[in-house]
Design brief:
With about 500 residues, the chain is mainly alpha-helical. The protein is about 65% helix and about 5% strand.
Length: about 500
């Protein structure tokens, strides 16, 4: 059995190396690749995806797994051996459901779709990418058809992003959150907000990101094992455990854009670097499906961006440095004014720039729209108008241009439809649940943050979450860390207390 386990590990590590190559090509496409290379990049990615998929469905992998049948019964349920076999079996069986030919078509389409989206965004014209998105929807429904037992066409996409979750569970959490969130938003926006004009430029974008990257080092991001680059839509990726890349963007017109976008991606990067402790494959080396949970990953990016980076203790420590970075704009601005400005609640059109309180309404709108697309009740051609209608309903505003509406996010134009967006709100919910659990475990959180010392918090996250990699499903990990199923209660407490203080609510 020892030699068979070694054979399985070697087989999976070689497959993971190919997955790393696709991550590197995708990173390059989103950062430095010349636009004219899109077609060739599509072929390159398709070729790699074909080889990876063929390895995952190879009868040799099935034979190795058959030889290991029953071994799980002789080892602890969450041992490395059992976890490795479970992950390998899941990937093998899942891949057998999805034809290689489909994966090739998907990879080729996504490479071209991303370039179409860039053109459409620049022109602020949904028509440029409408036909491409029609094909994306067809591919998304085709993927769903490979799992006919699913209760909803979104279920296979959600399970790919968050093993163990379904559309029903997502709806439960969203409904629970919405019932309390909407009245809270209404109460806050009725109050006069702080003057946030102090956040509007010019603030040189290089200086914004330099400040944020210095904070990233303080958080614990290891630039000896990581790197960063500019991009159009920020993301983080893991090429390997010792090659974790983050990207960011910044606008000279607004101070928060570069700072908070960078801290968000650093949160992803810390998780990716910390997962190295799980060992090969269990560190997420094979990529999805069944890999890292988007909800857990987003819980870390939102935790470091918001619960840490938008907190008063954080700025009590870092605001003098920011004032030194932008002395003309901030030198005479009191901390209390700055803190209120970066936490101002104001309905807005752009998700990535939304305040903490209204952010989840942006996500709920997207999930509602993609469910309608998958169910067939919303034709792609009507998507821009449906987008405007839901923004008017939930936020009282509507975009005048497609760039501020249906084209603002890259997700539907670089992947499939149905499994990406719910992770952001679930991440907000879980980030608060984990943060509260850390405080309950006597981890020094606020005091450390107020001194610019994050080792205690990062150490707890590494020990309870990061080191496990993909060993557990999303619900299993949440219960293991907090002792409870996913619940909105800590998040709602956090929002109510924070914005109640800021806006003087009873």
């Amino acid at each position: 059995m020892t030699s068979t386990i070694a054979s399985l590990r070697a087989y999976l590590v070689e497959t993971a190396d190919l997955t790393s190559a696709t991550a590197l090509l995708s990173w390059d496409q989103n950062t430095h690749m010349p636009p004219a290379a899109a077609a060739e990049r599509g072929r390159q990615l398709a070729a790699l995806h074909r080889v990876i998929h063929q390895r995952l469905i190879d009868p040799e992998l099935g034979r190795i797994l058959d030889e290991l049948e029953g071994l799980e019964d002789r080892h602890p349920a969450n041992s490395d051996v059992v976890s490795l076999i479970r992950v390998a079996r899941y990937r093998h069986q899942h891949s057998l459901r999805v034809p290689t030919e489909f994966r090739v078509r998907q990879a080729e389409h996504q490479a071209g779709s991303y370039q179409n989206w860039l053109e459409a965004w620049e022109a602020s014209d949904f028509g440029v990418v409408e036909e491409t998105l029609e094909t994306t929807l067809d591919l998304s429904l085709e993927f769903s058809s490979f799992f006919p037992e699913a209760d909803h066409p979104a279920d296979p996409h959600i399970a790919t992003a968050d093993t163990g979750l379904t559309a029903t569970e997502v709806s439960r959490v969203f409904g629970e959150l919405r019932a309390s969130l909407v009245p809270l938003v209404q109460r806050v926006v009725e109050r006069p907000g702080p003057d946030s004009s102090v956040l509007y430029g010019p603030f040189p974008r290089e200086a914004q990101v330099t400040f944020a990257l210095d904070v990233a080092r303080d958080f614990g991001f290891d630039f000896g094992r990581g790197n960063w680059a500019w991009t159009h839509h920020p993301f983080a990726t893991k090429i390997s455990p010792d090659d974790v890349r983050i990207t960011t963007r910044a606008s000279e017109r607004h101070l928060g854009d570069g700072v908070f976008a960078t801290l968000h991606e650093v949160g992803h990067g810390l998780y990716n670097q910390g997962a190295k402790a799980a060992g090969p494959i269990l560190d997420g080396g094979l990529g999805r499906p069944g890999g890292f949970s988007t909800a857990i990953h987003e819980s870390q990016s939102r935790l470091w961006e918001n619960l840490v980076g938008r907190s008063l203790p954080f700025w009590q420590h870092y605001y003098p440095t920011l004032q030194d970075t932008f002395p003309e704009a901030l030198h005479n601005l009191p901390l209390e004014h700055f803190y209120a400005a970066i936490n101002k609640v104001e309905p807005s059109l752009i998700r990535t720039g939304a305040d903490e309180l209204t952010y989840n309404l942006h996500i709920m709108i997207r999930v509602e729209l993609e469910r309608a697309l998958l169910e067939g009740s919303l034709p792609v051609r009507e998507l821009p108008e449906a987008w405007r209608a839901l923004y008017l309903r939930d936020l009282g505003i509507e975009p005048e241009r497609d760039r501020e509406g249906v084209l603002q996010d890259v997700h539907w134009y670089s992947g499939l439809i149905g499994g990406a967006f719910q992770g952001y709100t679930l991440g907000n919910v879980l980030g608060a649940q984990f943060f509260e659990a850390a405080k309950g475990a006597d981890v020094e959180v606020e005091g450390g943050v107020g001194r610019g010392e994050f080792g205690s918090l990062l150490g707890w996250l590494q020990d309870t979450i990061y080191r496990h990699g993909i060993r557990f499903s999303t619900p299993e990990l949440v219960e293991r860390v907090t002792g409870k199923r996913m619940t909105t209660a800590p998040y709602l407490r956090y929002l109510t207390e924070k914005f109640g203080r800021l806006y003087g609510l009873d």
